[in-house]
Structure prediction request, 91 residues.
Amino acid sequence: MEKLKQWSPVISMVLLVLIFFRSCGTGSDVNKLKKEVQVLNEKVISQEQMIDILETTVTWKSLRIEEISDKEKISINALQAKEEKSEKDEN
Prediction:
């Protein structure tokens, strides 16, 4: 009992210091998470922007070019350049 009374202030101080440092670390973790969430929010586009992109992008044409390039083992860039050239010649 005597030893417990003697060491109780030291033990309580050590516990308080540990709790204090632990709480300081948690705040920095929260700040890091907030920064990561902010970066992710900047990268995410809205639903309206996604709909606009899907409506303005010629997806079937892109898929057809990719299919032809896979079938004939020609790079996609070469096919796109050839197709753009033929469209310009037609106009």
